Amino acid sequence: MIRLLLATKEVAFETRIEKIWERRSEFLTLNPAGTVPVLVEADGTVIAGHRAVAEYIDEAYPDPPMIGTDPVGRAEVRRLVDWFDRKFGEEVTTNLVDEKIMKRFLRLGQPNSSAIRAGQINIRHHLEYIGWLCERRNWLAGDAFSMADIAAAAHLSAVDYVGDVPWNDHEAAREWYARVKSRPAFRPLLADAIPGCPPPKHYADLDF
Predict the structure, then answer these.
(1) Residue 21 has pLDDT above 90, yes or no
(2) Are 45 and 105 within one domain?
(3) Cα–Cα distance for residue pair 177/154, rounded to 1 Å
(4) In CATH, what number is assigned to the domain containing residue 51?
(5) Do residues 34 and 76 both lie within one domain?
(6) pLDDT tens across 73-112, in order?
(7) How many other CB atoms are found less than 10 A from the CB of residue 81?
(8) Which domain holds residue 89?
(9) Residue 173: CB partners within 8 Å, gap ≥ 6?
(10) In a shared domain, residues 76 and 145
(11) What is the tally of structural domains in the chain?
């Protein structure tokens, strides 16, 4: 999500991979929580936590605004960001991406088939909600592309990487994601690859 936000605002940045399970003391000095993302500015300023980092970026680099331009608009963007980071994350991303990929890296045993089935069922409800929003708005939170679209697309790109998004059954959500996917800021994510775990062929295809 943070990479998409920075790229959308055309802010140059360098990405560094942090293996959070190693709990390096140098990294814990930056963020005692031991989680990513952590933003380190050129002057040494450190911002930790994805929501704090996102809000900071939108204020420090205000063009274009990604969290709305009025109180009602900002509230709706924040509501949807919370929806995808919390509800979608718990009901879908954790059950699919964590089970299929993170368990492997953390050596936590075999994937839980019940959790995977739950994630595959839950994602359909979320895709229906995305479609419902898109039938009433130009983008998820309103007329303008916003952090809500970025948050949703970030989660969906991770789930799409493991091949668990039933796009063909949710045309409106698919059309919205195709618009997000075709934006220049999104293309570096489509080039990502996890060693030994390639994405499905459609993952980087702008036309699916």
Answers:
(1) no
(2) no
(3) 10
(4) 3.40.30.10
(5) no
(6) 999 999 999 999 999 999 999 999 999 988 877 777 888 9
(7) 26
(8) 71-204
(9) 127, 128, 130, 131, 134, 167
(10) yes
(11) 2
